[in-house]
Amino acid sequence: MTEPILTAKELRKRYGDNEAVRGISFSVLRGEIFSLLGPNGAGKTTTINMLSCLIEPTSGTAEIAGHAIPGDTLNVRRAIGVVPQEIALYDSLSARQNLEFWGRLYDMGGKELSRRVDEVLEQVGLSDRGKDKVKTFSGGMKRRINIAAGLLHKPQLLFMDEPTVGIDPQSRRRILDMVKELRDQGMTVLYTTHYMEEAEELSDRVGIIDQGKLIALGTQDELTKIVGEQETLRLHLNEEAAAAVAAIDGGAAATDGRVNLFAGSAGVLGAAAVDHQIVVSVTDANAALAGVVGRANTAGLAIRSIDIERPNLEAVFLHLTGRGLRD
Amino acid sequence: MKKLLAIMWKDVNVLFRDGAAVALIIAGPLVLTIGLGLVTGSFAASDAPAISRIPVLIVDQDGGRFATALTDLLTGEDLADLLAPEMWNDEAAALERTRDGDVAATVVIPAGFSAGFLPDMTTGALPDPVALRVYGDPGSPIRAGVVRSIAEEFTNRAQTGVTTVQIALTSLATSGAASPAELPAIGRAMGEQLFSGDGAAAATGSLIDLRVESVAAGDDESFDPLAYFAPAMALLFLMYAVTLGARTLLSERREGTLARMLAAPVTNGQVLGGKVAGIFLGGFIQMAVLILLSTTLFQLNWGNPLGVLLVIASAALAATGWGLLIAAVSTNSGQVAGLGMALTLIFGILGGSFVPGMQMGSLLERAGSITPNKWAMDGFMALAAGDGLPAIIVPVAALLAMAAILFIISAALFRRRQSELLVG
């Protein structure tokens, strides 16, 4: 697992005054799951689009399975499979008809295509629903067919762009298991997500991306070392954390997610509002707990529960950017 | 090519699996055809002012008794509200005016027309019938049909009367009730009585060959209002069908399927070519199905099958060109739908889909030339009137030229917006 199948060098993409990707360089090794972890708008999809030859980089190059970007577009596309963030299927066609259509675009046909359609339907657990129209499927089932379409031609490298967005926990579990099975079968996967848990569970290596830049890259152990022995206190609130904090914290949380409420409290390194949670980075959770809860109570925050977490990727992101992952 | 065809078939498959769309583009035209046919049929059978003072030219080359009777009928008081007749000497000039749409029809009474009703005095046999010719303006099929009906009614009465006299004289001669010398005088007297009365009698078959022809000439054919509205409504909804197809160019971008196609080893040209072919084929199938259904349901005769296919194909191409242009200037599928609907209605009006034979001003009439509806209707009406392939050369060429121009403009616009259209 040492040979890179993908190498990106200083990829940049500019739209007018906005630079969506700012000189990203990384490699994906054959047989690994490599995750690009970052909040929405960090540049993950733009990076995938450049590597899929859907958009041309403003500058920089890449090489996939020996084929150059820009330049060798069709061969790059033959080597990769793409599972887009959207459910890119035709609702009025059956699952099988959808898969047959996508297979034909990869030069497949006849019995070979029919056999592969059977195989991928089996792989995603929908063999008995092949003849049903996609519009009759649940969101999770559509996601699985969306993945199946990317697997038909047995790509050397599979791009999966946030494949679990908007689905129920059961379907998410199924998809995560499927991704691990693909890796076990020898497929290389480039996986983008803004869910820390998914990156932690799946990835051999992780690239953390924020505001168009790759700010950290390595195995999870390598990345968590960045924050040393930091721990995380996760305060679960009954309401949207950013709004709650904004009301008592001078509005700071409403703009960039940073929470100043705990500044100066013993052992607190930083805090950010994420959904219905406040993530507090501390040197020692047990020592800092009383001070953090005290300040929250004084400020009138209604804490529902508290988790104490060992160093993780979210703490890394918080440490590197001062913001939470789901800002 | 395989990938282009795969995209094309996928689009056609998707279009015809959309129940609402199929109901609209197939059932819609059929229902409207029936409705308009019924309404127009009522107009034709009544004294409704919508069809009145029909301009008609009469060219009398015969001058005989029957020709005069017909001329008197057409120019008489009884039909003064319905017809605006004008006597004309030059047949070629009259046909030219009909072809130009200045008049709805020209009735040509050829030399020998009257003599064709008179039996040989010695044998009693009738000479070969001489055809009464009614030339109709293809752009005014209903009004031309009215003139044809009047001429037909006259000839039917004439032939009935002649037959009645013939039978009576034969009976008188064989029974000895009248001598052979008296028979001509008796015959003349009976004829005058018959043609001065209402002449109602059972028809006994065609003694007079009545031909209704378009100005481009052709075979025998009669006009049915449904024969106008069936293609008119099909063409109206053809524009709508291609608009549905053109919408997918933008909706596929929104739904991510366009990007997914382009992430496969296909070229931009294959994707766009497949989409365009899909729009065209969708329109072609819609028209073909409507023509087959209307042939079955309304017993319509569309004319030369090859000509019909050529007109359908060229109309679908031209409509596809308009659909592409709409997509090329729109930023989202909603805009395509709005513009498409507007263009469908405007083209329907300018192209004569709603008001057949409407006397539009010359400016509006010229504006109709930018619509596929107008040219395709010209082609369909010529074929339905029995004309051969030469009659559709101009409409087909106009439709193909329209398609070529629109494709070129759309391609240029798409090229400018390529990256935006393909991946947003």
Feature tags:
heterodimer, A: 327 residues, Alpha-Beta Plaits, six-stranded mixed beta sheet, four-stranded antiparallel beta sheet, 12 helices, B: 424 residues, alpha/beta, abc type-2 transporter like fold, 2 domains, 5 strands, elongated
User: What is the general shape of chain A?
Assistant: globular
- Integer average pLDDT of chain A: 86
Please state the second-level CATH architecture of the largest domain in chain A.
3-Layer(aba) Sandwich
> What string gives the helices and strands of chain B in order?
HHEHEHEEHHEHHHHHHHHH
Low-confidence stretches of chain A: none
What portion of the residues of chain A fall into strands of 2 or more residues?
25-35%
Structural class of chain B: alpha/beta
Order of strands, main sheet of chain A, comes to 6-7-8-3-9-10
- Sheet-strand content of chain B, in percent, reads 5-15%
Average pLDDT of chain B: 77
Instruction: Supply the number of structural domains of chain B.
Output: 2
Question: What's this entry about, in short?
Answer:
The complex is a heterodimer of chains A (327) and B (424). Chain A is an alpha/beta fold and 327 residues long. Chain A has helices at residues 44-51, 73-79, 95-104, 110-123, 139-151, 169-184, 196-202, 220-224, 241-248, 252-256, 285-299, 313-321; strands spanning 4-15, 18-29, 33-37, 59-64, 67-69, 80-83, 157-161, 188-193, 205-210, 213-218, 231-237, 268-274, 277-282, 303-309.
